[in-house]
Amino acid sequence: MKTCTMCKKDFDETAARSEYAEAGEWLAGEVWQDAGQLCQTCLENRARLVMMYEHEYNS
Description:
By secondary structure, the chain is mostly helical. The protein is 44% helix and 7% strand. The chain has a two-stranded antiparallel sheet with strand order 1-2.
C-alpha cells in the first residue's frame, strides 16, 4: 500500500485501473512527474479536468 500525495489516502498501486486512471497516469509521468504517487481517484479526476480545461492535451 502507498499513500496518495494528493489526497493522502492509502491505495494499492497494483489494482486494475480505469481508462481515466490510465490517462491520469500518463499525465502524471509526462506532465507533472509524479507517476506512481497518486491513487486511482486522483488520477481519474486529473484526467477529467485536463480533458475539460487543458485543450492542448486533447488533440
